[in-house]
Amino acid sequence: MGIASLEGFLTLVCDELGLDCVGAEAASADLADLPGWDSLNLLRLVVLLEEHGRPVPVHRLLQARTLQEIYTFAKE
Amino acid sequence: MTAGHGAPGTSALGPPLGEPIAVTPKGDSWDRVRDDLATLGSAIVHARLSDLETHLPSGDGLRALLGRDWTRYLDLTHADVRHRYAASRMLLKYAAGAVLDGDPDELELAYGPTGRPYLRGCDQIDISLSHTDDLLLVGLTTRGLIGVDAERADRDMYDSGLGRHICTPYELVLLAGMAPEERNQGLVRLWTLKEAYSKAIGQGMQFRFTEFGFGPDGRPVRVQRPDGTEGTGDEWLFRTVVLDGGHDSGYFVSAAVYDAGFGPLWDTHITTMLDQDCVEAVTEALDRVDTGEHPAGDQGGAMWSPS
Fold first, then answer.
1. Where is this region: Disordered (chain B) (predicted)?
2. Mind listing the pLDDT tens digit for each residue in B217-252?
3. Which domains does chain B have, with CATH numbers?
């Protein structure tokens, strides 16, 4: 499953970053409220999005407060 | 322990940074923290989340300890995140309380526009906070600014392709020149140094990590430009150590301190944090009120009446 859907994006993030972030609640949760989330995960997400053909600059991701927002940036 | 085989960062303005000190809220290491702050101008303390949780108050006690952070604490929904948030604030307030000789509950933690924490009304002490895994880290300095960061030494970074998002061209060349088995830890070291420095200047990752760098371990560490030339001087000092993590790899811990050149602060007691001129002015004005004399410039005492 890729990042064509929010569900697929969350599954990818969950699997690749080892985060507990499945479900709609995780999508809208503040990143700081995700267990295991840290700034290094943000960079890993940058690499992950690049690998899936959806590059988003670091400074853009820094503006995101939730995974839903990151997904929106990746879809733009 | 110094990471690698070299000496810690040194500064022409003052002594180097000391070793991180393991503490617990009721432990006996706080004298060492006070000594480090008095003699070195900085102190770094660390604790394990599992050790702090047993000391965390609950209910009104926790609310009193967290102060203005209580609302933020309530906003956090995940129990693990909440515990870490509360424990990190407790460690910070106990550390600050120890060096200021004040009640941790009475200290007010505030945040600047970029989220950088500071102790409200105690600006002679600068603070920084970091946590990773089970490790909590606090930096304190009277020299100017401080930033600290910690990361598991075995965290996968190099093979994940993070280097080009973290390193300058010069750093990438240095890493490529290291033995393959040393590259990941070399990158983790650079990451913690960059995090510590960017926290100290209050920028976080807004200051692109590819725009500034650090040289190899084993020599005085300085901020470098992307091409490897020196970007800052002796006013900044850095240190990276490896802490035992209870697992094979341990943690890389880095600290960055900016020495503003004010010299040592011999007395950090919370009551001496007040500006002496201000204290004298208030004392003088109160004496005048006690004796029935109106303060200079006051026309009939309206200045002292509620409006």
1. 1-28
2. 878 899 999 999 999 888 999 999 999 876 668 999
3. 21-269 (3.90.470.20), 274-307 (no CATH)
The pTM (predicted TM-score) of the whole model is 0.86
Q: How many other CB atoms are there within 10 angstroms of residue B269's CB atom?
A: 10
ipTM over 0.85: yes
Grade residue B202 by pLDDT with cuts at 50, 70 and 90: very high
**Model confidence over B266-293: pLDDT tens digits?**
677 766 655 666 667 877 888 887 777 7
Partner-chain residue, chosen from B78, B81, B165, that has the shortest CB–CB distance to A43 = B165
- Is A47 close to B77, i.e. CB distance below 8 A? no
Contact B78 A62 (CB under 8 A): no
Inter-chain touch B77–A29, beta carbons under 8 Å? yes
CA angle B217, A41, B155 (to 5 degrees): 45
Which residue from B minimizes the CA distance to A35? B81
Nearest beta carbon to residue A35 from set B81, B157, B166: B81
Q: Output phi, psi for B194, to 5 deg.
A: -70, -40
**Interchain proximity B206–A34, CB inside 8 Å:** no
CATH 1.10.1200.10, applies to A6-75: yes
3-state helix, strand, coil in chain A (%, to 5): 60, 0, 40
Domains of chain A, residue spans: 6-75
Please give the helix or strand (H or E) that residue B224 lies within, else none.
strand B223-224
Sequence-ordered alpha helix ranges (H) in chain B:
30-40, 49-53, 59-66, 69-75, 79-100, 163-166, 169-176, 180-200, 276-290
Interface test with A, best of B71, B83, B135, B165 (most A CBs within 10 A): B165
Is B78 in contact with A42 (Cβ distance < 8 A)? no
